[in-house]
Amino acid sequence: MSTKDTIIEMLRTMPDDVTWAEIVAEGTARVGSQGHEAEESLTQEEWESAWLEECNRRLEDMRSGKTVSVPAEDVMRRLKEKYG
Question: What global pTM score does this model have?
Fold first, then answer.
């Protein structure tokens, strides 16, 4: 599996409320020994393609009712409750 495919699969399996820190940690673990070499081997176009594919998947999930959006006010309230 290519690094791009690994990243796409990782993003697909993560919950919608995952933090960026968790994404980075999971990505690092899944890429494994390739580490920064794998990151550096992805072109800007590959990164953009992977994110576009994931964004489209999430948009389709919202349109189909599989997931729902959370109002920004609720997100900010939760962040303030959690982090002060």
Answer: 0.44
